[in-house]
Design goal:
Elements: H1 14-27, H2 29-42, E1 48-52, H3 58-66, E2 71-76, H4 79-91, E3 98-102, E4 116-122, H5 131-140, E5 142-151, E6 155-158, H6 171-189, H7 200-206, E7 210-221, H8 227-243, H9 250-259, E8 276-286
């Protein structure tokens, strides 16, 4: 999904973020594979899987591998991200079952060739102003018996112990609080923004679907982490440092600067206590008629 709000420092340049999005999705592959094994129990043999807000297509391609009989359509508002998705599908030998549709959700779903048996919305819904209306639109693009799988919420990522020996203890908890304020501003700035209680099963029911399940999936990469996981932590903290520049206090900015300085022995480039712990929650709901 690509949404840009002129003059608002909550802007997200998805093309610039593409490498981080790819690295994160690749690192989280074990988690997504468990999600797909669970979805396969609810949606056996889907003909069409639609990945809404697909980004660079890592998860879209995982769907193609997990469901070899399905056609996959990656939908996103950013053409540069979809270019990366098509290139990935080509590299993996999946191009014959893989296509993309560029445009803004939910309207772009009208361009789908036929209704979806499984529609996957991973952290894309919260970029839409009217989430209730978007869920209704998503539901309208499901085939009879089709399933909408919504990934929203879960738990914030943790990379470091509470006390890291520099700065005030509890750095990541404070970052979470600042990021929550940023998220609220981002939501308010969206076109047509509607405040909504984030009771996802209730909202799925209001969209005319039958809520069929909720499950959380954990990515647990304990210290010492691999180089790939460490690079993801560096990239994630760098993005947070840049995005939250105006909101963090001076001491926490200084701590982050040390954590991100490859020449500093206490940085995440060198620390032995870096880990990755993150939970994603997925809600499923079926079209019964």
């Amino acid at each position: 999904m690509a949404h840009h709000h002129q003059g608002d420092h909550t802007d997200i340049d998805w093309a610039v973020m593409a490498p981080l999005l790819e690295a994160q999705a690749e690192l989280f592959t074990p988690l997504y594979e468990r999600v797909m094994a669970w979805l396969a129990e609810e949606v056996p043999g889907p003909g069409l899987i639609v990945d809404t807000g697909s980004g660079p297509g890592v998860v879209s391609c995982l769907f193609a591998e997990a469901f070899p009989g399905a056609r996959i359509v990656a939908v996103d508002g950013s053409e540069p991200l979809l270019e990366r998705a098509r290139a990935r599908a080509e590299r993996l030998g999946l191009a014959d079952r893989f296509s993309t549709v560029a445009g803004e959700l939910p309207e772009v779903l009208d361009d789908l060739p036929y209704p979806a048996d499984l529609l996957w919305a991973s952290n894309s819904l919260h970029h839409l102003g009217d989430q209730r209306a978007a869920l209704t639109a998503f539901a309208g693009r499901l085939a009879p018996g089709g399933t909408l799988a919504l990934l929203e919420g879960g738990l914030p990522a943790r990379f470091l112990p509470r006390d890291i020996g520099i700065g005030r203890p509890g750095l990541q908890a404070r970052i979470d609080a600042v990021e929550a304020e940023w998220f609220a501003r981002m939501r308010t700035a969206l076109p047509g923004a509607v405040a909504e209680t984030e009771d996802w099963p209730a909202l799925l029911t209001a969209a005319g679907l039958k809520h069929t399940g909720t499950r959380s999936f954990l990515l647990d990469l304990p210290a010492p982490v691999t180089d790939r996981a460490r690079a993801y932590v560096v990239a994630s903290l760098t993005r947070l440092r840049e995005a939250l520049e105006e909101d963090l206090d001076r001491e926490d900015r200084a701590t982050l600067d040390r954590l991100l300085d490859p020449e500093d022995e206490v940085s995440v480039h060198h620390r032995s206590d870096v880990f990755v712990l993150k939970a994603h929650t997925v809600y499923t709901a079926a079209r019964t008629a």
